[in-house]
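User: Could you go from structure to sequence for me? I need the amino acid at each position, not a summary. Structure tokens:
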């Protein structure tokens, strides 16, 4: 099966990653089948321009019908070096980004 190309915002070798660090509801961790939610260029633009939560919610509702949009009130951008492997962890709704290189990963 061919992988779908995911559009990303890349600047100076860094990729914009969207996540929600607020406790209560995860952004992507509650929508794991929608990988584009953490890279979406339109959403990155709205966040960078500090648009209102209402505008962000309207955009997300149209873009991802049926998605759980909890955590939208605390969406945050983190810039990750292009090509870096990472995962988004969630604890009680609070998401955080963990870089593969920052942990003691073991390879068998």
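Assistant: Here is the amino acid at each position, in order:
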């Amino acid at each position: 099966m061919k992988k779908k190309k995911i559009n990303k915002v890349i600047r100076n070798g860094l990729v914009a990653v969207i996540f929600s660090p607020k406790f209560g509801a995860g952004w992507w961790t509650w929508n794991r089948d929608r990988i584009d939610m953490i890279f979406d260029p339109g959403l990155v633009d709205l966040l960078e321009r500090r648009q209102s939560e209402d505008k962000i919610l309207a955009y997300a509702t149209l873009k991802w019908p049926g998605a759980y949009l909890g955590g939208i009130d605390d969406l945050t951008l983190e810039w990750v070096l292009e090509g870096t492997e990472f995962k988004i962890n969630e604890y009680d709704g609070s998401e955080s980004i963990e870089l593969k290189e920052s942990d003691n990963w073991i390879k068998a």
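One structural detail worth keeping in mind: The helical segments are 41-48, 53-63.
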